[in-house]
């Protein structure tokens, strides 16, 4: 069967299950399921239905694309800060409509026009002091946890996320990358197809770092970086 040359692996491949996406983003699977399905919460003495915060770009049930993963990682930044997800979702709906961008958190435009629109929406509604206080020196900006993610993203020519460099100070400079075109979107050692999970599994089984470096043809520094990356991805599970 001929491969669809119009398909975009960032949007069209079901690369991540809910547990895997949750692991990489640092949230609990149940939290992510709520973001995907919507949920009910009490407000003013009644139950209110919250709409989904992430709309899958793939048709396979409860599977996520790379673009969806990027949205989840960004949302996890808001979640980490303690911002109301209902408020974030409404603000992002406004941004998506005004930008005509269905996935603003996976678009480079969120750093410019998107940030201004996000704050414009917040100032129209009753103030969420916790969120408003996140601005520094009166400058309107996303929470630092969200900005950290945005600084780790490598953007394509279409201004849409193309690769993610978790933990890097700038895209393209980190030891680990998540690329939808490599290893089915799993984190790999940069410039290789070696999955960090494979290295970590062998390390957890007791194999020395030096032997792993020799087997994979990597420097010890790169093996250790892969292990650190996987340990960080496992932290939410252990919490």
Describe the model.
The protein has a domain at 160-239: Arc Repressor Mutant, subunit A (Orthogonal Bundle). It contains 11 helices and 8 strands. The protein has helices spanning 9-12, 18-25, 29-37, 66-81, 85-99, 113-124, 129-132, 144-152, 196-204, 209-216, 220-238; strands at residues 16-17, 39-43, 46-50, 63-64, 153-155, 161-164, 176-178, 187-189. The chain has a two-stranded antiparallel sheet. Strand 2 (39-43) and strand 3 (46-50) form a beta hairpin. The longest helix has 19 residues, at 220-238. It is globular and about 60 Å long. It starts with 8 loop residues before the first helix and ends with a helix.
Write the layout of secondary structure elements.
Blueprint: H1 9-12, E1 16-17, H2 18-25, H3 29-37, E2 39-43, E3 46-50, E4 63-64, H4 66-81, H5 85-99, H6 113-124, H7 129-132, H8 144-152, E5 153-155, E6 161-164, E7 176-178, E8 187-189, H9 196-204, H10 209-216, H11 220-238
Antiparallel strand pairs: 1-4, 2-3, 5-6, 7-8
């Amino acid at each position: 069967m001929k491969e669809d040359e119009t398909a975009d692996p960032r949007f069209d491949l079901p690369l991540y299950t809910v547990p895997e996406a949750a692991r990489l983003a640092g949230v609990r699977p149940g939290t992510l399921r709520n973001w995907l399905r919507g949920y009910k919460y009490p407000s003013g003495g009644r139950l209110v239905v919250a709409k989904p915060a992430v709309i899958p770009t793939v048709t396979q049930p409860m599977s996520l694309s790379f673009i969806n993963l990027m949205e989840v990682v960004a949302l996890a930044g808001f979640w980490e800060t303690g911002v109301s997800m209902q408020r974030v979702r409404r603000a992002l709906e406004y941004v998506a409509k005004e930008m005509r961008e269905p996935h603003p958190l996976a678009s480079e435009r969120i750093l410019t026009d998107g940030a201004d629109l996000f704050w414009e929406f917040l100032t129209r509604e009753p103030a969420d002091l916790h969120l408003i206080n996140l601005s520094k020196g009166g400058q309107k900006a996303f929470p630092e946890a969200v900005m950290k993610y945005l600084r780790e993203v490598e953007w394509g020519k279409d201004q849409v996320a193309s690769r993610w460099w978790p933990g890097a100070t700038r895209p393209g400079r980190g030891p680990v990358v998540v690329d939808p075109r490599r290893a089915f979107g799993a984190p790999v050692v940069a410039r290789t197809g070696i999955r960090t999970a494979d290295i970590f599994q062998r390390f957890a089984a007791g194999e020395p770092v030096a032997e792993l470096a020799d087997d994979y043809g990597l420097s010890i520094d790169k093996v250790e970086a892969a292990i650190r990356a996987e340990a960080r991805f496992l932290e939410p599970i252990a919490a």
